[in-house]
DNA sequence: AAAAGTAATCAGGTGTACCTGACAAAATAT
DNA sequence: ATATTTTGTCAGGTACACCTGATTACTTTT
C-alpha cells in the first residue's frame, strides 16, 4: 500500500519531468529534437550510427516501418545533407544509405548532449540515478519483449540494444 | 572529469529511457499517448484538470498557443466527448470550456497511470528516484525561467506548477 | 452613438510521421 | 527463358500540431 503511494508520487514526478523536457525544448533550446530522436528521420540516424551502409529495405525492417516511409525519410535526410545514397554494385536494385560526416555529427549532437540539469546531481545521486535507470530500462526491455514477441520486434530490439550500447560506450569513452 | 563521464553515462541511459518509453507506447500499450500528453489536445486536458471552466482565450494564453490553434484542439476534444463548450452569460463573446466527466476520467487515465516499470524499484530506490527527480525538475524550472523570462512563460510555468502539484497531490491522496 | 478593443470563427497553410496501392527494374528460381 | 520474388519509386492519403490573415459579433471607451 505504501508502495503504491510512493510509486504514484514518483509517477507524477516523471510526468512533470517529461513535461519540462518538452517545454525546455520548445521554448529554450530551439533545436534539440528530443521528441523526434526516436521517430522518423531521427530513428534512421540512430540506426545508421550503429550500423552504417544499410540498404533501405534493411533499414525499414530494422526500424519497423514500410519501405515507402523509410524512403521518404531518407530522402529528407539526404536533402538536409545527413545521409548519402549510392547504388550497390552487387545488386543494382538496392540503394545503400550512409551517414555523411555532417550526419554523424548531427547524430552525436542529438544523442550525446548531456542535459544541463544533470549537473545538479552529486556523485552519489548520479550513481543512484544510473542504477535506477538500469533497472527501469531492463524492465522495459522485458515488458516490450513480453508484449510483442514478433520477429520484427526482436530485430527492432536488437538494433536498439546495439545503438544504445554504442551511445553509452561513446559517452563513456569521451 | 569523472563527473563528466558519469553524467555522460546517465545521459545515455536517459536517451535509452526515452526511447523505450516510446517503443512501449507504440507497440505495447496501443493508446497511452505519453507523447501527446503535453501537446495539443493533451495540454488542454491538463490545463482544464487544474482549472476548469476557462475561456478559450484564457486557455490559449496559458498554453502559449494561438487562439485559433486552441479552438481547433478544443473542437477535437469536444468531438471526442472530453470537453463541453458553453457561452458565457456575462460576456456573450466568450466560450467557456469545461471538462466532461469523460474528460476528467481521461485526464486521470493519462496522468495517473503508474508506469509498470516502477514496480521494479524497492522502497529505497523509489525514495532516491523521487529526490533525484525533484532536484532535476527544480533545475529545469530554473533553466526555463532563465532562458525565457517572458510574461507568457511566467503564466505558463505557473500553470504547470499548479497542474503538476495537483497531479502529485492526487496520486498521493489515492 | 461612433470608435476601438476583444473573443471567436473561417479559410487556408506548413511540417512531420506514418500508411496503402500500383508499378518498374533487377535478381532468383524453375 | 519465363515466372516469381525482391528493392525501390511514384502517387496519393490520413492524422496531428501548429500558424497567419481576414472577418464577425459583442463589449468597452470616448
From TrEMBL, chains A, B:
Gene3D superfamilies: Winged helix-like DNA-binding domain superfamily/Winged helix DNA-binding domain. It comes from Companilactobacillus nuruki. One of its GO terms (molecular function) is DNA binding. Keywords: DNA-binding, Transcription, Transcription regulation. GO terms for biological process: response to stress. Pfam families: MarR (PF01047). It comes from the Bacteria. Residues 1-138 form the HTH marR-type domain. This is Transcriptional regulator.
